[in-house]
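step 4 of 6: structure.
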Amino acid sequence: MSTVTFSPLYRQIRDRLVHSLQAGEWRPGEAIPSEIDLAARYGVSQGTVRKAIDALSAENLLVRRQGRGTFVASHQEARAQIRFLRLRPDDGGEPRQPSSRFLECRRLRAPLEIARALEMKAGDAAVTIRRLLEFDGEPIVLEEIWLPGSTFRGLTAERLNAYSGPLYALLETEFGTRMIRASERLRAVAAGEAEARALGVATGEPLLLVDRVSSTYGDKPVEVRRGWYRTHHHHYFNELS
Amino acid sequence: MSTVTFSPLYRQIRDRLVHSLQAGEWRPGEAIPSEIDLAARYGVSQGTVRKAIDALSAENLLVRRQGRGTFVASHQEARAQIRFLRLRPDDGGEPRQPSSRFLECRRLRAPLEIARALEMKAGDAAVTIRRLLEFDGEPIVLEEIWLPGSTFRGLTAERLNAYSGPLYALLETEFGTRMIRASERLRAVAAGEAEARALGVATGEPLLLVDRVSSTYGDKPVEVRRGWYRTHHHHYFNELS
DNA sequence: TAGTGGTCTAGACCACCGT
DNA sequence: CGGTGGTCTAGACCACTAA
């Protein structure tokens, strides 16, 4: 009585490619084998490999570059960074990358709520980071980040301060964990004392509260993040299509 | 010295299909001709038509249904309605469709800012609507909507009140204008007196301010909308992928 | 110029839907 | 059952990149 799950060939190839990506057979930024090579490897036609790669390209796991090859997507690229930070200045200028100031990085036991979101047991090791994102030297976003402690064992305050690029790029290159997608829930809230102090606004000021859960291959959640956004001169941009 | 714009066949077919949609050759909800018929009509192979339809399907202009045909997307469908209202109850239940209570519907001259967003001249005829969206009888969203008066000539308060479905469905069936995509800018603001009164909250309460510009075929903007969202028990959901 | 991805075709066959 | 979209193939050729 179970539903027969028909899976087309290109879908199976797609899944095998994802497994290879997950296993680190090709690293972020590197090229994967050519379509013809992959077709030979899997014993299918080039067209079928092509359709599999099309799917992964649409999912932003791979990036095609005509005449050069197909590459593993990376958070080092500007495009990936924009995808994961939707805040833009009101004056529509180039979305300059913010600089981050780390306020705290501690290892402790995961509270129940965090543990549940990360699919681990309450009390398991976790890392928490607090940081401030500054645009043109002005603090705009306060963030509190939670990661599973086991997979990010060497993540310390020194490591964070020694690095200047986007956080996801560091997690990707240093810890082999690539954030694939995230879902966010937005609310308007009044600034509490801590948020107000960090962002330099009055207590009670309206802030945009952004709760995010990010996941890696196989939709496994590996980060929980709460951000307080000051939206006086910035806005959260979203495209409905 | 101009860049040569190479346009593949499937892209040209895509554009011709869009023109047919725009001209109303097939109405929302109706089936378009089969791939084989279209291939014959345009003198290309079925595979090329297929790729064109794939693109339009990804853009949510068409909907494929295996074994039945390919249909013109419509705002009557539940899927379209969800795409254009990202507010969900916190308790993750089924996103019930809100009921809307119309507060006002007036015809007047477009203010400068509205005119610019709608690509018309300041002073041109416009329609403005104010309404309240209620979830389970509770007012959650206050909206102020602006439309070009010329294309929505028969839009009146009576017409709105006589209709119960989603607004875009009415605009689509009664006025032949289909909203294709929209871009939104979100901010956190303090409730002014008018918003507070309409939503039944205290003045100064944090609200999620959502500014939207929607467009129809050819990215022509045809609606400007400002919404004040009460996010005590609801949140704006967004998927980063 | 060699190698990559991108396009286009023709044809065979499969999965699904309604009658 | 006939008609629709969905898959897969093999092969030819085009567009782009780098050396």
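step 5 of 6: annotate
 - The interface with chain A takes residues 58-60, 83-84, 86, 180-190, 204, 206-209, 211-212, 229, 231, 235-241 of chain B (CB under 8 Å).
 - Residues 8-10, 44-48, 51, 65-68 of chain B lie near DNA strand C (CB under 10 Å from a C1').
step 6 of 6: archive
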